[in-house]
Amino acid sequence: MKKNRLVIFSFVFILSLQLILSERFDINDNSALIITREIGTEGAEYGIITDKGDVLELKTTDNNAKIVYWKKIDSGWKNQWLFENIKVNSRFVFDKKENKLIEAHFSVAQEGEYEIENLRFFVPENGKVDYENGKIVVTVPEESRIKKPSLIDTTNKEAGVDITYKVEGQKGVNLDYNGENIPLRGAPKTLNRDEFNTLEIGYDSKLDRFFLKNGEINNIAFGSISSEDRVYMFIGEEVPANFNEDFFKVDFTNKKVEIGAKAGSEGVYVNFYPGNAVISVDENQILSTKAIGHYNPSDEEKKNYGWNEWSDKSRVIIEDRGKDVIPLITTQGAFEVISGKQLVWYDKNSKVPLASPNYVKTGKNSVGVGIQSFDSEGKPIKYTIKENNVDKTLTYDGSTFINENGDIYSAAKNSNVYDRAVVNNLNNEYREKLNELISYDKQKALQIVSLPIEKIRYELDNLVPDFSKFFGSEKSARTKNFIVNSPNGNARAYATALEYWRKQHALEWFGKEIPDWDRPFPVTITSGPNIGGGGATTFSPLGRGRGIIPKNMNIQGSRDSLLYGTIPHETLHTVFASHFGVPIPRWIDEGACTAIECASERNKHNRLLVGVLQSDQIIPFNQMMLAEDYPRDVLTFYAQGASSSEFLLRKGGDGINGKRKLLQFLNSAISGGETKDAWTRALQKYYNINSINEFQNQWLRDTRQRIKTGDFYKK
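Request: output the structure for the sequence above.
Response:
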């Protein structure tokens, strides 16, 4: 190949002189550079070479330049690499002694593949490459296309360089992955997804695998919990069983996601947002799961549960199981399922305490967790749980799941009966309800725990005994606390219901039963299919903490409305009166009693209230809360009292927590004399509501919103 004499002369005699390069520059006897727009073009000025002693620096002075590096091999010349479509002001630095490129900073006008060391990599249109100190950073515009790099010499697994793609903007890139176009961007910085991380994608040549710290694919966010660890990405491929790195795998065809954490890793997370292509998630909800390879328990956890730091790898599979079937999470090792402040997790020995496990609700009702039953050798895994603060060892055969109340259920082979392993200190309210149901109707209990998880809590919340077994012609019946007179029969069923609701109300509101009364309550019942429900109960209060003297209870209605509406309502009056020993404010007494009636009765009150709101005829709260007697419009008073009481119950935490807080609120107001100031102080202390007027406004906003969303009543 003929050498450019001008270039050689200048290089030999004026080493520090900047030269205008037209076509070819000889670095030494064994290597040369060519810079041009098109092969064969001569006479144009496209770059400047500066000799800096040990290195040569080339800068492009025009767009669309092509740079070719030639090397003499076995007396012949061979094209080693070329950079084309290079933009102006790009810069390259060559080591003359080593005959190699050691630094490059260039932008490209068109997409194409480039080679540095043993790595071939793709750069999209208007992409920018920075290569220095053995690292390549490719900065690409958002919504560009990128491909997986490859090795030039596949017999050598060392690329010789590290490469990272960095995306400008928050829209991410389109990843060309095994023939599929995958939209990928940085993971959200917040759960609201109002801001996203900058996407950075690395490539490991030894594993032939992309990795990143965090990302989002089709509304599925994932990433490393640690800022130092990398997460390897698998899309539609199997993860090798011996893969010992943090990873994220998504299989859109089979609707399955798997995450794994290596031993010692702080973990890998995955968040499923509405609209993702794997798990159906309702609007404004998130399903979040972590695989944990390393955990540092708190001192309290070490003391209470004997946990120590662990370092075992973990794998979690989240999969859709078809229409109307809840998604399943299958785990091996430490994991976590999160819904807001509530989570579920295990330590490395598969010990269970579960901490506040209420699974996030999804469009498929909820999430079930399947526990690994056998180890890699096929031997049953022994699980240790805490039952009444005592460790208990169990094994499962695969027919095992955890419901949202934190209880584990397992079915022995060829058995239809679920045995319940109680987890310590979890959801006592629901455990008590289920225990009571098991005591008198085990088949019903089996049906409930076999339901989709979202429905279990609902069924237990609305669970009452089957009083029909007590139906009969008896016109009178007597229990410890009630004497029932029912001319139309079923006296035993009504007496059983009265005792049940008396006990149930006391346990739910006060955490213990109230003492038996000194004399039974006389109860007169008028029943019939066309008789409207209602009742009146009278008693003599004995003073704070001293209980009552029963007088009379007169109730009426159809059989079912009596059992599930009027009797629960009237017995709660007696339970409240027995506890306080003094009359309690009318609005909250009637409101709380109405709020616990069966769903159909509550729906009647709510339908009435909708009409009251539409006609702007509500009773002002400063009148309602200070009323000593029933107003003229007693139905509105009942409906409004029930709705406002239910609002406070929800604001206080629902369930037992909401009831206990309402009691504290009521005690405070009664102790203060039930004045306007006393109610205001109680509202401020227990509900962070500054005034009675603010209470009314908050209730109005909440009720109107629930009416708007269809959550308030059924038409």
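Residues 464-583 form one domain.
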